[in-house]
């Protein structure tokens, strides 16, 4: 499939507000300090010219953010240009009316910089909190709530009937956002049906690649674009974002040595929870941070080369870096953000503009 033109390739940061102890010492900052650090990270991303900062929603002790819109609203008062997105809003267990209202409010506070990245999420802890323990048609639930969210952004007064929440009979939903329409991305992990859905709806696609060979995901992106084109949408609607873990440092070996213990601790813990039972080895980590691997861990030139390599494969429009995959020292994360904005982004944008004929 022909990739979409890229007049300005976007780069940014994604974070879950990781809140895990140091794997070597067990030390952990307070929740208040971690939130302060996170807001400083968003402020720095804005200062160094990154395009987007995205926050994930979780309801567990190792991630701090249960309400992305609240944190993003605080960040909106500290920033001027960076777009502020969820990554993701777990739409299956939230009410689309409240989601729309929260992000419309964020859009007004930020001067039109809000985005919703809607998804089913890769964790299940929100379901017992908000949905109880009754059997659930997960795909049907998400499909219905996404339909309502998209209806809400198109119409102030909504008439809608579904199975998972009360019907609406022409009630007005306020406030209305500054942007029209309020951007909604569809976040997926790796299922063809999800890629097809995003294309058919003409929604931009956010794809998380956190392991394996990224080029194996090319088929999903081709399916997305083919589905969107068949539904009558042009390249301006069919945008793709890639999100991956990594860490940028002045020295490549230092980046790897800093990230690996944190990455190992987090992914082995998740593996135990999910029954993977596979040890995370340094050899596997090194393979994943090579040019064709999934992790963007290294010095600025290595990371720029890797983004450009993946752009040859995917022709995507946005890349977001998730620093570490676990809690790293604040100063290390700040330096990674600085390097992404000041050294990686100019190289990547210039080369992609040259490739696409987009000029400066």
Structure description:
The protein has 360 residues and is an alpha/beta fold. The chain has 11 helices and 12 strands. The chain has helices at residues 31-47, 68-76, 96-110, 126-130, 138-154, 192-201, 218-230, 252-274, 282-288, 300-314, 330-356, and strands at residues 10-15, 52-55, 83-86, 89-90, 114-119, 157-160, 168-172, 184-188, 205-208, 240-248, 296-298, 318-323. It has an 8-stranded parallel beta barrel with strand order 1-2-3-5-8-9-10-12, surrounded by 8 helices. Helix 1 packs parallel to helix 11. The model is unreliable at 1-6 (pLDDT under 50).
Reconstruct the topology from this structure.
Blueprint: E1 10-15, H1 31-47, E2 52-55, H2 68-76, E3 83-86, E4 89-90, H3 96-110, E5 114-119, H4 126-130, H5 138-154, E6 157-160, E7 168-172, E8 184-188, H6 192-201, E9 205-208, H7 218-230, E10 240-248, H8 252-274, H9 282-288, E11 296-298, H10 300-314, E12 318-323, H11 330-356
Parallel strand pairs: 1-2, 1-12, 2-3, 3-5, 4-5, 5-8, 8-9, 9-10, 10-11, 10-12
Antiparallel strand pairs: 6-7
Helix pairs in contact: 1-11, 2-3, 3-5, 6-7, 10-11
- Using the alpha-carbon principal axes, give the shape: globular
Strand content: 15-25%
Mean pLDDT: 93
Total beta strands: 12
């Amino acid at each position: 499939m022909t990739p979409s033109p890229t007049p300005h390739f976007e780069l940014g940061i994604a974070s879950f507000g990781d809140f895990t102890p140091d794997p070597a010492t067990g030390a952990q900052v307070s929740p208040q300090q971690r939130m302060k650090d996170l807001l400083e990270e968003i402020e720095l991303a804005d200062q160094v010219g990154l395009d987007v900062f995205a926050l994930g929603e979780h309801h567990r002790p190792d991630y701090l953010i249960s309400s992305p819109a609240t944190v993003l609203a605080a960040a909106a008062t500290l920033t001027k240009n960076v777009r502020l997105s969820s990554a993701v809003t777990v739409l299956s267990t939230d009410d689309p009316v409240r989601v729309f209202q929260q992000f419309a409010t964020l859009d007004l506070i930020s001067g039109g910089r809000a985005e919703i990245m809607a998804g089913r999420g890769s964790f299940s802890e929100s379901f017992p909190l908000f949905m109880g323990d009754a059997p659930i048609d997960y795909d049907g639930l998400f499909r219905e709530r996404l339909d309502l969210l998209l209806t809400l952004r198109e119409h102030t007064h909504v008439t809608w009937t579904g199975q998972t929440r009360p019907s609406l009979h022409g009630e007005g939903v306020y406030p209305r956002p500054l942007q029209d329409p309020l951007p909604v991305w569809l976040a997926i992990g790796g299922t063809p049906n999800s890629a097809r859905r995003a294309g058919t709806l003409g929604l931009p696609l956010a794809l998380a690649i956190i392991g394996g060979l990224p080029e194996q995901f090319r088929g999903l992106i081709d399916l997305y674009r083919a589905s969107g084109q068949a539904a009558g949408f042009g390249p301006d609607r069919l945008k793709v974002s890639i999100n991956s873990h990594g860490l940028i440092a002045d020295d490549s070996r230092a980046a790897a040595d800093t990230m690996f213990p944190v990455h190992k601790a987090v992914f082995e813990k998740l593996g135990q929870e999910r029954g993977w039972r596979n040890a995370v080895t340094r050899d596997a980590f090194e393979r994943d941070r090579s040019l064709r691997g999934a992790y963007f861990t290294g010095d600025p030139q290595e990371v720029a080369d890797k983004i450009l390599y993946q752009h040859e494969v995917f022709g995507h429009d946005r890349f977001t870096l998730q620093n570490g995959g676990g809690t790293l020292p604040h100063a290390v994360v700040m330096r990674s953000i600085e390097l992404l904005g000041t050294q990686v982004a100019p190289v990547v944008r210039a080369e992609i503009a040259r490739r696409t004929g987009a000029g400066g």
